[in-house]
Design a protein that fits this description.
Radius of gyration: 19 Å
Oligomer: single chain
Helix content: 40-55%
Strand order of the largest sheet: 1-2-3-4-5
């Protein structure tokens, strides 16, 4: 077993991550585009537990700077249900905390559903303190978001084509292949690829 920052991945490892995210939240449809955006963001660090080349756990450290100091959010901490009870979550979190020291002084934040009793106990045992505050969230979906999504799709298509070439696949990358790999409607992919001239 090894814990490391994910830099590259196989299709099987992407499927492993997709399964992990679904265990964390059934309402999230994790796509290859989502993964590519995380890996391309220099402020995001996706740490994974690898066992026999399969990803069995993950956590993300998202670093940002504000006028009140350097902060980070620890997101999407999950270990595969098949491997729970082996203290892998603790090992993963200890690894993430060790990596966060590179940004010290830094204030770390994380949220956890109260129903996740074991996870909440783990975070407290590692030194996290429960903060009494209100937590708010908002989804913004407007035309600007659509444009950003289109740009993100183009980046993902470019990345996917480059990945295919790097793996020695010299066959043309079709819109149908891209649609299936990125889990994006075929008409959106065709439109983007036409705009890109590929």
């Amino acid at each position: 077993m090894e814990i490391q920052e994910l830099q590259d991945y196989t299709q099987t490892q992407f499927e492993d991550l997709k399964q992990l995210i679904s265990e964390l939240s059934a309402r999230v449809n994790f796509t290859l585009t989502d993964l590519m955006l995380v890996l391309k963001d220099s402020n995001c660090h996706l740490y994974v537990i690898i066992e026999s080349e399969r990803i069995i756990g993950c956590a993300t450290l998202c670093v940002f700077h504000s006028p009140t100091g350097t902060k980070a959010s620890i997101e999407d901490v999950v270990v595969s249900s098949a491997y729970r009870g082996q203290h892998l979550g603790k090992q993963l979190m200890e690894y993430v905390l060790e990596q966060a020291k590179a940004y010290a002084p830094i204030e770390l934040h994380l949220t956890s559903n109260p129903m996740r009793v074991a996870a909440n106990k783990l975070y407290q045992s590692l030194g996290f303190q429960k903060k009494e505050t209100n937590c708010y969230q908002m989804m913004i979906t407007d035309e600007a978001s659509s444009t950003t999504g289109n740009d993100a799709l183009k980046q993902s298509i470019t990345y996917l084509i480059g990945k295919e070439r790097a793996e020695g696949n010299l066959e043309p990358v079709t819109p149908l292949f891209v649609s299936r790999m990125l889990n994006v409607p075929l008409d959106e992919v065709e439109k983007c690829m036409k705009e890109m001239g590929v």
